[in-house]
Task: structure prediction
Amino acid sequence: MALKIRLARGGSKKRPFYSVVVADARAPRDGRFIEKIGTYDPRLPKDSENRVQIDAEKAAEWVRKGAQPTDRVARFLSQLEVDGKPVVTWAHGNNPNKGEPGKKAQERAKEREEKAAAAAAAAAEPAEEEAPAEEAPAEEAASE
Result:
């Protein structure tokens, strides 16, 4: 059985409150769990001591048994220490493609660039054609 240490959402609409639970990975997010080991209230300020409350001893025990924390819970557990060591080592993820627009948006941007380049080229061409036209009347006036 694959175990996860994850957040289970509670609270009412627009007022989230999470329980940190150990659950089977196949169980629903807010459904059956094995043990509740803490709470997380995202509405509290980040420096509040009541924002994240997790029993570090229980969390460390479950990690030793093979429970895998989710990214958010791993971030919380990396700040807790048991016997002078963090419960979990957490490293910031790197996904450089996450901020890029989708395929359709990239296609639209490419079309806009092509239209802008075509418009700039079209604007530059008439200016070149007008210059020889101005020279012709000047030559006629010089010959008179």
